[in-house]
Amino acid sequence: MAKFFDHIDEALADFINRQHVFFTASAVEEGRVNLSPKGMDCLRILGPRRIAYLDLTGSGNETSAHMEANGRLTVMFCAFDGAPLILRAYGTAQIRRLGSQGYDDLIGHFVEHVGARQIVDMEIQALQTSCGYAVPLMQFEGHRPNLLRWAEKKGEEGLTNYRHAHNRVSIDGLRTGWD
Fold first, then answer.
1. Beta strands of 30-178 (E only): which ranges?
2. Measured between alpha carbons, how far is 159 from 152 in angstroms, rounded to an integer?
3. From CA 20, how far away is CA 39, in angstroms rounded?
4. Domain edges within the chain
5. What is the model's pLDDT at position 121?
6. What is the second-level CATH architecture of the domain 3-166?
7. DSSP reduced 3-state for 172
8. Would you say 87 and 76 are in contact if contact means Cβ atoms under 8 Å apart?
C-alpha cells in the first residue's frame, strides 16, 4: 500500500543515500515526457523538503526546458538490492546554471565533475512510497567512466561549444535557458 509523506525523515534519507541511481521525470502540457536515469553520486538532501542534483552535460537538456516552462519534477528511487521499495518525490525545481550565484551557492555540497552544467534544485511538495516488489534484484558494479572521459576530452571550451550547439533547445523546440 502506498504511503505519503510531507518531508524526508531519517528512514527516507537513509534509503535515498543508499541508492546508486535515481530517475527524473518532467513534462509540459504538449510534447514528450522526459525520463532520465542519473548516477555518479550527484544527488544531495539539502533539507526535509529539498533535494538537489548536479547535472552533467549530455546529449540533450530536456529537464532544463521543462523547468523553464513549468518547474514540475518527479524524482524516483528504486531499491535494486535489499528490501524492496520505491520512493517518489514530487515537487518543483529551478535550474542553477554553471556560473550563476545559485550554482556557486550550492556546488560545495557536491563532488565536482568535469562537464557539470547546472544544479537542479527541487522543493518537495510530497513523497510517496510503494512496494517495489516487481523491481529486479541487481548488483552495483560501479559508475561508468564514459561521460567524464568524454567531457575531459572536450575541455571547457569544447563543452561550452557543445552546450551552445546541443543544449539550448529541447527535442520539442522549447528553450532551455542556455541562451
1. 34-38, 43-47, 50-56, 72-78, 86-97, 116-130
2. 9
3. 6
4. 3-166
5. 98
6. Roll (2.30)
7. coil
8. yes
